[in-house]
Design goal:
It is a single chain. About 40% of the residues lie in helices and about 15% in strands. By secondary structure, it is of the alpha+beta class. The longest helix has 15 residues.
Length: about 210
């Protein structure tokens, strides 16, 4: 967009800096800091909890604060209610897993290379695998997993806050969104998600029309 502004819209020279916070702008920048597009529909991961299931399992209805507690909650829910304790979203990306790995002090990507196969990353993925293996976590496609939570069959759902209206409108139980858990003694990492608006056309007319739309 900055190229198009410089070429055709000098009056919009300050638009991007005036309308967007610097940290939000970084979501749509490459590793060299070039602005590839404008951030759009920014979201963050949260934990949705079925407070009715938590109470039924004799757990604190305010939900878990750490991933260690998440494991204990999920196991207790499975043991006492025979329902799944948690579903961690599984679309065609690893955004939710990124939050868990980075909150443990690891990285999904570092210096342009995959870097999650270290101690912190392995601990995070091992936790998720253990919960699937002991049946305290539901392992299925994303649509079915989220629908299972809405149907009242899963105690906790780790996903984007963009789902909150859909969940609120369709759940028939006491539901709440709480902050992403941390790992014990570590600072949580909350990766931003969402999308960006970009300009891909080769023609000047379409580029200008795209910027006007944006």
């Amino acid at each position: 967009p900055e190229e198009i502004i410089n070429q055709s819209f000098p009056e919009d020279k300050k638009f991007i800096k005036e309308k967007f916070d610097d940290k939000v702008l970084k979501i749509a920048q490459d590793e060299n800091g070039e602005q590839l597009g404008l951030p759009y529909s920014v979201s963050s991961p949260v934990m949705f909890i079925n407070k009715d299931i938590l109470r039924k399992a004799h757990l604190d209805a305010n939900g878990p604060k750490t991933w260690e507690e998440v494991q204990n909650y999920a196991k207790k829910i499975k043991e006492t209610t025979n329902q799944y304790g948690i579903f961690i979203q599984e679309p065609a990306d690893s955004w939710a897993q990124q939050a868990i790995v980075e909150s443990n002090g690891g990285n999904i990507v570092k210096d342009g290379k995959a870097s999650f196969a270290n101690q912190e990353g392995i601990e995070a993925y091992q936790m998720m695998q253990d919960m699937v293996n002991n049946k305290s976590a539901l392992h299925t496609n994303d649509e079915q997993g989220q629908q299972s939570f809405i149907n009242g069959e899963v105690g906790m759902l780790f996903t984007t806050n963009a789902k909150q209206k859909h969940i609120k409108d369709n759940a028939t139980f006491d539901v709440e969104a709480i902050e992403i858990p941390s790992w014990k003694g570590k600072e949580k990492a909350v990766p931003a998600g969402g999308a960006m608006l970009g300009i891909t056309s080769d023609t000047k007319e379409e580029q200008e029309a795209s910027w006007k739309f944006m």
